[in-house]
Amino acid sequence: MKIKIIAYIIAAAVMAVLPLFVAEIRNRAEHIIDYTSGDIVIPVSVPDSFIAESSDIVMPGIIKVYDAARGETFEIDTEEYITGVVAAEMPSAFNPEALKAQAVAARSYLLYKLTNNPGGHADGASVCTDYKCCKAYLSAEEAAARWTEQKADEVFDIIRAATEPVRGLIITYDDAVACALFHASSSGKTESSVNVWGGELPYLHSVYTPESEEPFTTVFGADELTDKLRGAGYDVRPAGDIAITCNDTGRADYITVGGVSVPAGELRSILGLRSTLFTVERQDGDYIFTCYGYGHGVGMSQVGAAAMADSGYTYDEILLHYYKGTALRAVKYESTEN
Ligand SMILES: [Zn+2]
Questions:
Q1: What is the pTM of this model?
Q2: What is the chain's mean pLDDT, rounded?
Q3: What is the Å distance from ligand 1's center to 11 Cα?
Q4: From CA 53, how far away is CA 179, in angstroms rounded?
């Protein structure tokens, strides 16, 4: 009799909870069907492994940052640093889910750098504020100088409020912190890490990204192009015909001009192009480069993340879309008390 009563209680409890799970599954499915950009649908289903769990991964509570503009090093609470990175990397007007995804990606990238590539900065600093070296960073003082103190306070308040729920969260791959690279925009497709740096990382493969920003055009005269390539050490003949060879994701792999081949990534930095997703045409002796997207194209696209968030995707779905096969974990902050 007692066993029967217990069985009834268990059955009743299961029946009460089951609809919640069904509702949850249905919500996810609707997300998938609702989101369309053109004809493309992004299927994202968040597996159990992606639900945030605590971990033994340790993060320093305070880090040393080298201020590249002032030539000084300062110490800062790690979460405050992350807030400053989000403020520099993403407009606070972006959807809060995109800001959350940005904070988790920035924190993961920081810990990856601290773990795998520490040092290399003055005064033993862990990172610097030069976006070309580490990540962009905006302090409250710089923000106040850029806008007004009131506007800076508003921006930081918005970012703190949006990212508080994901405080301490990182993404991992095989139980180790993931190198969560990100960039401004990608125009349809992100790039695989192997095509940029030769490093194969399974969670940094090319994926669809729902965005189509206006392309950006830069024009170079033939002499200008020749001079720039020569300045970079290329023994180039006066620039004539130009040809692009694309890689497997559709970006430029290398270009051939004036008898030399130049890797597209290198050409991008020589000419200051926005991305390696470009076309080039010759017109009246000039070379017209039309670039799509902005940045190296690897990992999460910030504009794509905002578009996904505006379509109802949550930060974890956004992260899982751009970083396939990863998991979400909470770090343990090292005590900051001596
Ligand atoms: Zn740096």
A1: 0.85
A2: 86
A3: 58
A4: 19
